[in-house]
C-alpha cells in the first residue's frame, strides 16, 4: 500500500501514529499565571541534546477555552517553565485520567489522583513518586505547519531520580517499566533490555 497523506489513507483509522512508535510519553506539568496546576501527557516528546540537556514536545490541538492551543502550551507561554514527569507502568491509569479534556481552571492532579510536589529550580509542581522528573525552562516555542501545531523546547535545569531506580550507578528503567505510546489506543512497556555497543566506542 502507498498513500499520499494529502489525499487520505482510506483506512478506518490513521496509521501514522502506529508507524512512528513506540514513542516516549512526556507527562508535562505546568502552572498558570494564577497559580493553578495543570498536568497532561504528550507522546510527541523526546530528548534532543546533551549539553546543555534539552527536551521537546509537540501539542497538536486546541481547547475551546484557549485561543489557539491547549492549557500546557498556554501556561508555558505565560511562565516560561514546565516539568517533564516520566510515566511508569504502575501509573498508567493516573496518566490516562490526566488526559481528560478539562476546563483550564480544573486541576488534573486532583482529578487524576496524582500528588503534586514542588519543583526545586522552577515554580511548578511535579508528580510525586514519578521515576524521574525533568525541571525545564522554556527556550523557544515554534509554530509548525498545521492548525494549532506547536513545538516547545526546554533546557533541563533540574533532574529528580527516584532512589530505587539507581542500580550500581545507572538509571535502570527495568525497575519501573516506562510506558510508551503506540498507535490508536495502544501502549507498551519496557520489560526486556539488551545491549549493542556502537562501533568505535
UniProtKB/TrEMBL annotation:
<dbReference type="GO" id="GO:0010181">
    <property type="term" value="F:FMN binding"/>
</dbReference>
<protein>
    <submittedName>
        <fullName>Flavin reductase</fullName>
    </submittedName>
</protein>
<dbReference type="InterPro" id="IPR002563">
    <property type="entry name" value="Flavin_Rdtase-like_dom"/>
</dbReference>
<dbReference type="Pfam" id="PF01613">
    <property type="entry name" value="Flavin_Reduct"/>
</dbReference>
<dbReference type="InterPro" id="IPR012349">
    <property type="entry name" value="Split_barrel_FMN-bd"/>
</dbReference>
<feature type="domain" description="Flavin reductase like">
    <location>
        <begin position="20"/>
        <end position="173"/>
    </location>
</feature>
<dbReference type="GO" id="GO:0016646">
    <property type="term" value="F:oxidoreductase activity, acting on the CH-NH group of donors, NAD or NADP as acceptor"/>
</dbReference>
Amino acid at each position: 500500500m502507498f498513500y499520499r497523506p494529502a489525499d487520505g489513507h482510506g483506512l478506518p483509522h490513521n496509521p501514522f501514529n502506529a508507524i512512528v512508535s513506540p514513542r516516549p510519553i512526556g507527562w508535562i506539568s505546568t502552572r498558570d499565571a494564577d497559580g493553578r496546576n495543570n498536568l497532561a501527557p504528550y507522546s510527541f516528546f523526546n530528548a534532543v541534546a546533551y549539553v546543555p540537556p534539552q527536551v521537546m514536545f509537540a501539542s497538536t490541538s486546541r481547547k475551546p477555552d484557549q485561543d489557539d492551543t491547549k492549557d500546557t502550551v498556554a501556561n508555558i507561554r505565560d511562565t516560561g517553565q514546565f516539568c517533564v514527569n516520566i510515566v511508569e507502568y504502575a501509573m498508567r491509569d493516573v496518566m490516562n485520567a490526566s488526559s481528560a479534556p478539562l476546563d483550564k481552571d480544573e486541576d488534573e492532579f486532583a482529578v487524576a489522583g496524582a500528588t503534586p510536589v514542588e519543583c526545586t529550580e522552577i515554580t511548578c509542581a511535579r508528580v510525586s513518586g514519578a521515576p524521574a522528573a525533568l525541571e525545564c525552562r522554556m527556550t523557544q516555542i515554534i509554530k509548525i505547519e498545521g492548525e494549532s501545531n506547536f513545538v516547545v523546547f526546554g533546557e533541563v535545569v533540574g533532574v529528580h531520580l527516584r532512589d530505587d531506580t539507581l542500580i550500581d550507578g545507572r538509571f535502570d528503567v527495568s525497575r519501573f517499566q516506562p510506558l510508551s505510546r503506540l498507535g490508536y489506543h495502544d501502549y507498551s512497556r519496557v520489560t526486556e533490555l539488551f545491549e549493542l555497543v556502537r562501533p568505535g566506542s
